[in-house]
């Protein structure tokens, strides 16, 4: 469920985010209005409150609700537009915070749990709106509450103007007020926790997405050079510890510059994407790691694979690539690749890369469209020891 919500929020346009915010806020506004209407209609409660102040708050609730609905109506035709709506973000955040801050002041910000709703309002804003709008709303709430506290201390305005002293019995709130306060606290706490969980889950999803992006080549979707080198380093340590071989493959697209020069870079990009997709389907995932390490240069890390297994895998890949057809300007062409392969045992990363690069150079020097494979010195030494045994 959380992943589905995050997916919706990540794909939502700015106007859609406003619509979601309106859909969340309006039911709370209606609940506040209904609760206060019930209090005004109850004779016992009406006797211990100041009806004029509550009526003023009702007017504020209605005004904020209507303006919020107007924002929703305005945003509905724009729900598919990618254009930003920062002013609407700011209005929704500040209007909601104004309402809840006013409720907290009217009922006493120390005896009323409306502050919990304000915190929930900040969480919703961070999840759906931008930081600027939330910051302005937060500053507005802090300034309003501090100013009210100063005025109360100076006895310029009364504390909890909506309530009369009769609302408290020996310092304790009457039963109806206690029940109402507990309901607000429970709903406010539940909403804050729920949206807080969504917010943190959204942060985690975004962090994971950024991590994937930092390790992924944008054009092909393969691992990039940075991630490949990290995995190669880890595999080198593991192979040394387990005394198991692994193979390193370096692949270069033959005459790729001619493809770009003749058909254009968009066609060249298509060629690279097809090669990447073919590498993904022909490799053992996630054991093997194909990566793009340069312009038209790819690398493959084959874990727990000896030279014979690597040659079979590379020949299968080369065969699949030779069957691929590319077209541009009514001209169909194919591409071939040259590969250097080396089986490694306990070599350093630098030595392994040097050896596989030498094999790739030999494959290209010998006419391209071929595979040159060899054992590293450590692997060859190990092979001789095993044969003699």
Number of continuous helical runs: 14
Order of helices and strands: HHHHHHHEEHHEHHEEHEEEHEH
Q: Indicate the multimeric state.
A: single chain
Helix content: 55-70%
Biggest sheet features: 5 strands, mixed
Number of domains: 2
Largest beta sheet: strand ordering? 4-5-3-8-9
Q: Label the overall shape.
A: elongated
- Spans of at least 5 consecutive residues with low confidence: 383-389
Look at the helices and sheets and give the structural class.
Answer: alpha+beta
Outline the structure in words.
The chain has 14 helices and nine strands. By secondary structure, it is of the alpha+beta class. It has two domains: 2-214, no CATH class; 225-388, 2-Layer Sandwich (Alpha-Beta Plaits), CATH 3.30.70.270. The chain has a five-stranded mixed sheet, with helices on both faces. Helix 2 (14-41) runs antiparallel to helix 4 (51-75), helix 2 (14-41) packs parallel to helix 5 and helix 6 (114-128) packs parallel to helix 8.
């Amino acid at each position: 469920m959380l992943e589905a919500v995050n997916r919706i929020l990540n794909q939502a346009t700015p106007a859609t985010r406003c619509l979601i915010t309106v859909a969340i806020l309006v039911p709370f506004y209606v609940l506040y209005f209904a609760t206060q209407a019930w209090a005004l209609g109850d004779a016992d409660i009406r006797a211990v409150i100041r009806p004029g102040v509550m009526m003023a708050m009702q007017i504020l609730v209605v005004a904020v609700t209507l303006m919020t609905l107007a924002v929703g109506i305005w945003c509905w035709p724009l729900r598919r537009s990618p254009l930003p709506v920062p002013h609407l973000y700011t209005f929704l955040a500040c209007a909601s915070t104004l309402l809840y801050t006013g409720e907290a002041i009217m009922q006493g910000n120390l005896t009323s749990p409306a502050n919990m709703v304000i915190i929930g309002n900040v969480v919703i804003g961070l999840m759906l709106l931008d930081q600027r709008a939330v910051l302005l709303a937060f500053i507005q709430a802090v300034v309003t509450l501090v100013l009210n506290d100063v005025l109360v201390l100076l006895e310029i305005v009364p504390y909890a103007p909506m309530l009369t002293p009769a609302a408290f019995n020996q310092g304790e709130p009457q039963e109806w007020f206690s029940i109402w306060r507990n309901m607000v606290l429970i709903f406010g706490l539940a909403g804050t926790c729920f949206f807080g969980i969504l917010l943190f889950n959204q942060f985690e999803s975004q962090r994971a997405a950024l991590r994937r992006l930092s390790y992924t080549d944008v054009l092909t979707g393969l691992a990039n050079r940075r991630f490949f080198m990290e995995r190669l380093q880890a595999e080198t340590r593991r192979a040394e510890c387990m005394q198991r071989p692994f193979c390193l493959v370096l692949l270069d697209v033959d005459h790729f510059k001619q493809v770009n020069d003749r058909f254009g870079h968009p066609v060249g990009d298509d060629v690279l994407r097809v090669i990447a997709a073919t590498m993904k389907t022909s490799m053992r995932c996630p054991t093997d790691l194909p990566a793009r390490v340069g312009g038209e240069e790819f690398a493959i890390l084959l874990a727990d694979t000896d030279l014979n297994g690597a040659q079979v895998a590379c020949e299968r890949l080369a065969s699949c690539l030779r069957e691929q057809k590319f077209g541009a300007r009514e001209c169909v062409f194919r591409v071939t690749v040259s590969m250097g392969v080396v089986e490694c045992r306990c070599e350093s990363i630098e030595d392994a890369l040097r050896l596989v690069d030498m094999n790739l150079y030999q494959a290209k020097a010998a006419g391209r469209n071929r595979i040159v494979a060899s054992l590293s010195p450590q692997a060859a030494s190990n092979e001789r020891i095993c044969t003699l045994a």
